[in-house]
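Worked Example 4.2. Consider the chain below.
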Amino acid sequence: MEQTDPKKLSNRYCPEGMSVEAWQIALRKQFAEQNEFTVSHLDNNRIWGDYMVQSGSNHYRVAFRGVRSDRNYCACLDFRTSGLGTCKHVEAVINYLSEEVPGYPWGTTPFQPDRTSIFISYKGGRTIECSIGKGKEELYADWQARYFEGTLLPPKHYHLIDQITEEAKELSSTFQCYDDVYEMIRGYLRLHNWRGLVARTLPDGELPQPYAQAIASPEMRQTLYKLLHQSYSIIPAPHSETIIEPIIALMRFVSVHDAGRMLIVVRSEAEQSLWYTLLDQRGVTEGVTVALSSEVNRQNTSISGAYSLVFVACGEKLSKWTDPISIALKRLAIKHLYISVPHLSLFTPLQFSSITQHIDPYLLGPTYLFIEDAKQFFPMTDLPERLPERLDGLVTFLPDDPTIRTYEPQLPSTPSKEPVCDDEALPYQLLQALRDAIADPKRRIRLLDTLDSILQEEEQE
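Applying the procedure from the previous section yields the following C-alpha cells:
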C-alpha cells in the first residue's frame, strides 16, 4: 500500500503545491497509519463489504466499495460532512485490507452489488442515488426512468420516497433503501413545508403585529420575515442582549405555528434575569427555558430532547467542537436555530464552518471546498457586501431599529457619595466601544459623521 510522506503533515496549514482536498485526504490517511484501529469484517465478501471499525471506545460501521469510491460510507460525522468520500475509519479499512488481500488498490476487482439500492453519495456533497443490482437492469429500467435522472433522485421527487421504495420492493425482495436517505429527505421536506407555511401565513413578506412590536420599522419586519422563512441564521451582534426583542418576535410566531419547547442560552445571570423579565412582559413564558452557558452540558438531563426554537447568545463558543455547549446542542433535535456572535472577524473558515454545522452539518457543502473557496474572504467583516455569496440567508444583519436597544443596569437605590472611576479599565472600555462601532457598518457611519462634526466645530473655533 502507498504510504503518506514520512514527514508529518500539519493539520493547520496546507502544504505548498498541494490542493486542499488532497491535503485533507492525506491527513486522514496519516492518522489511520499512525494510530491503532481494530477492524472486523461483517460479511463474507473478500474486499468490498461491510466492516466495523473500533477506535478506543467508539465503533463505526463502514461500507467499503473501493479506494476513493463515491459509494463508500462511514457512520461518523466527519465522513458525512467533509465531502472527501473518506475518513480515518475508511482509511483504517484500506490499511487492514492491504495487509490481508494482495493487489492494492484492487482495480481489477470491480464492486458489483447483487441487490438494487437507494443510497446517499457523500463525495463532493450529498446526493441521493440508485444502484441497480447485477442482472436486474431490465427489471428496474421503467422504475428508474420514472423517478430518477440517470442515477440521481431529484428533490422534486423526494416526497414520493415511500411510493418509490414500495414499487422497488415489489420488483425484488432484496431491494434496500438506507436509513440516511430517509433522514435526509425528512429534513428537506420539513424545511420545505415550513417555508411554505411562512409564505402563506405572511403573504406581505413581513412580520406584523402582534408578533412584532408596533414600533418595529418596515425594514425590521421584513428582516424578521426572512429569519422565520429561513428557519435559522447567524446574527452578528456585538452585544447579544440588544436583540432580545427581535428574537422574542420570532418566538411568538413559532409558538403559534410550530409549538414546542424553547431554549435561550446566555452568558451571565444578569442577561438571564433580563430575558426572563422581558419574556414575562411580552407574555412568552410557556415552555421557555433561559439557561446559563455554564448549565448547558450533556450532564444536564433537563436540557435534552426536542426543541422548537433555540437561541444561542454566545455563539462564538460553538466554534470549538469540544466546548460543552457545542456537545450538548448536537444532542438536541432543533427545528429553528438562531445564533448570535459578537463579530464575524473572530473566526477562521474552519471555526465558522463548525458554527454552521450546529444548524445543519451539510449547510455549507463539503468542508474542504468551503475552506478553499472562502479563504479569500477571511477574516470576514460585519459588512453584508463583503460576504461570500454562499452565505446569503445564512448570516443576517439586523437593521437599525427601535426594537434593538441597550438595556442599562439599574442604578443602586442609594448611590455612593463619591463616584468611582476605574482609570485602568477606562482605556479598555473605550477601545471596546470603538471596536464595536467600527465593526457595525451603520454605527461606523454615525461615528464618522460625529467625528466630522466635532472636527468642523474645532476648526471654526
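Confidence is low (pLDDT under 50) at residues 409-426. The chain has 14 helices and twelve strands. Compare this with Example 4.1 before moving on.
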